[in-house]
Hints:
The complex is a heterodimer. By secondary structure, chain A is mainly alpha-helical. Chain A has helices at residues 14-22, 25-33, 49-70, 78-87, 92-120, 128-150, 155-168, 175-183, 190-219, 240-265, 295-303, 320-333, 338-341, 353-373, 381-406, 416-421, and strands at 38-40, 237-239, 308-310, 315-318. In chain A, 41% of the residues are buried. Chain B is mainly alpha-helical. Chain B has eight helices and four strands. In chain B, a hairpin with a 6-residue loop joins strand 1 and strand 2.
Amino acid sequence: MSFAWANQYEPKNDFTKWIDEKLPLPRLVYSAIGAGYPVPRNLNYMWNFGVLAGFFLVFQIITGVVLAMHYAANTEVAFGQIEHIMRDVNYGWLMKYGHANGASFFFMVIYLHIFRGFFYSSYKAPREMIWLLGVVIFLLMMATAFMGYVLPWGQMSFWGAKVITGLFGAIPFIGEPLQVWLVGGYAPNDSTLNRFFSLHFLLPFVILGVVILHIWALHIPGSSNPSGVEVKKESDTVPFHPYYTAKDGWFLGLILTFFAAIVFFGPNLLGHPDNWVEANPLSTPALIVPEWYFYPFYAILRAFTGDLTIPFTGIVLIEAKLLGVIAMFASILVWFFLPWLDKSPVRSGSYRPLFRVFFWIFVVCMAGLFYLGGAKPEEPFIVLSQIFTAYYFLHFLVILPIVSQIEIPKPMPFSITEAVLGKDDDAGSPPTPPAAGKHDSDAPDGALQPAE
Amino acid sequence: MTIRLGGIIFGLGLTAVLLLWSLLPGALNFAFPEKPDYYAFQEENISPEGGFSFEGPMGNWDTQQLQRGYQVYKEVCSACHSLQYVAFRNLEDLGYSEAEVRAEAASWMVPGIDGKDGSAIERPGIPTDYFPAPYANDVEARAFNNNAIPPDLSLITKARKDGVHYVYSLMQGYNEPDPEDVAKSPEFETPPGLYFNEYFYNINIAMPPQLLPDIVTYADGTEATTEQMSADVTAFLTWAGEPSLIQRKQTGFFVIAFLLFATGLGFLSYKSVWAGMKPKKK
Lengths: 452, 282
């Protein structure tokens, strides 16, 4: 599953030869993220966030496992256990703040990773499966982060859990029993905390599994690149190691410096003060908000303030709450259909003048939803949420399909080599004929498929 | 063709009118928000002149101040407010010796059990005990405090927005209402049993003014003004909320210095690996 010119792993001594015969794990790593993986030579810094996301996943698992050693999922003591970690456990404050802010950074790099995909159409053939698995990872991350936020059993933990589990109650007929079954009662309680802890421990490993599939799927067509032109020949690529390990390495150091600045000098900047108050089912906070990384979807949820009725009859078809729930889930599920909504044969936004305009409008729309999700539920924020929510769906369901039909793309370079060097000696000559045994290419730009 | 164009323009115009129409109430509310009747009294939090010693990346505890703040908590706040996550042993952070902590702990009575018959008694504290709560339960706390529960103070500076400055301000917020503000909010009144405080979120707080001048006599001879005591108790409560605050910042310096160094080396190796790979575009 790589290009024909990929470096092959060669065991150097008897021991590595012995290992390679029995279990070729070093060979797998070498071909996956080592010198045996040819990567387009023109990747820009937007391609660093996948590796960063992988780093934060591992970081969250390590700090999380340590925190779990000192935590107790019991509503009587959970809040106090966090204080025990903060005050008595050696460097417990570092683990706690690292884990809480690590989640924020994980989402930050994931959002950049996703928006890289939006701009450079990383979801288009032949990479649909990578994209679909990525959306699955994002959904799993949201579930995991939501349940993790409940564990400290602060005010926002409790009330956030109450609001989000309450969403299931909006489903017709089965909603209420389903909600009671999921929560283990009528309001978040000890059973809820225990099952959330159990799942919060389990899901990261499920994410890890899907991440492995995501990377596996990536290695079939190879990485995309900013020109959107598929890899044609060896001069288009460089080996992942040392070229991209060096690039990812220093960039990781840069992001970790920002991360350390937050963890050590402003660990509560991204949190909510109410979560330093122990959960109290009798006292509702003035404003219930999730963590910042859920704001866009929370804004979509809250945008639906009116029931869907048959006009002039007063018959309610769908209640406002259910509309909000449907829209919130649909706002992410629509990503699953993205490869088939955007039909443009051109991948890179750099060569799509019209798409590029709408991409940046969409970025503004998302930024607006980020702001509105944390705002008070009053005017003008409600109407703005409704307008931005409408535009969000308009972008995916109407604008993208139309733009991909009417747009006239700019001329593209013949190859990655030309995109980088400004010339390619092979340009103008017919494309290299596919080697025997290879599949015919169905890539939009007529590029070669890599060898199996 | 012209009909189609006209249709598009008509549709866009209709959409624009509908959009503006739907935005109108919001814009009006944004421009002239409905304000609660106490809005005129709300004040921005204040901070002591020169800030607190523990603020900023290079901050450190002023142990003298922490000891004074502890004295204020012990002699004033602890009558109504618990400090449940702080143990006497933690007081060593304030610069007390082990023997002093032992003596300090013994000056507090904590709930215990009689060694012979197991009945509930009160005994002098030992360093591993936590600060005792002033009330047996929430019902008792409400009964003594005009139906309000005095919050636990061990996390108070983190559990409020801008908590450090909030606590400092609140202690000094029991002023006479400004006549100009009263003119703006003629409806507003402070019911009996509550107190006017311009830093409390709805102005009327159940806690009476506490830090009256000279309510404590400082062991180190500092003059006990309201401002002084507010700053001292705020410093103490900040420490109580996060004893690892200074250790965190000091560790952070080393971590960031290391990361900058490693990132610099990483960048140089990146440059050397890629040297010659990226000729300039023509």
